[in-house]
Design a protein that fits this description.
The protein has about 100 residues and is an alpha+beta fold. The protein has a single domain, classed as Roll (Sulfate adenylyltransferase). Helices cover about 20% and strands about 30% of the residues. It contains three helices and four strands, in the order αβββααβ. The chain has a four-stranded antiparallel β-sheet. β2 and β3 form a beta hairpin. The longest helix is centred in the C-terminal third of the chain and has 8 residues. About 15% of the residues are buried.
């Protein structure tokens, strides 16, 4: 699950914990974690919603100025199903000093 860069700070701070996505079918699974450039997000819930459910308040809560701003980036591909995805941010693990990781 990718996010436009302007939302990253809000996600990391915990200010943004939901996203509206327009897909043909769900592309995330509840309980799974998805990488961000730093840390991960874990999906808490996903539910289908209708277009009338996308209020200005919901758009702002997802980090956008309003509904039109959100809709410019919410549609991914040919989909026309709208999903409300709730998630929380998980910061990157801190390595302990002197501990090496292998790849």
């Amino acid at each position: 699950m990718t996010f436009t860069k302007r939302l990253h700070d809000g996600i990391r701070s915990g200010e943004i914990t939901l996203s509206i996505r327009i897909w043909t079918r769900p592309r995330v699974i509840v309980g799974n974690r998805y990488r961000m450039e730093e840390g991960e997000i874990e999906v808490d819930s996903i539910e289908p919603i209708g277009f009338p459910d996308i209020t200005p308040q919901l758009a702002r809560a997802s980090g956008f100025l309003g509904v039109l701003d959100l809709l410019k980036v919410a549609k991914h591909g040919k989909g026309d199903n709208i999903y409300l995805v709730r998630f929380h941010y998980i910061p990157p693990s801190r390595r302990k000093p002197g501990k090496k990781t292998t790849h």
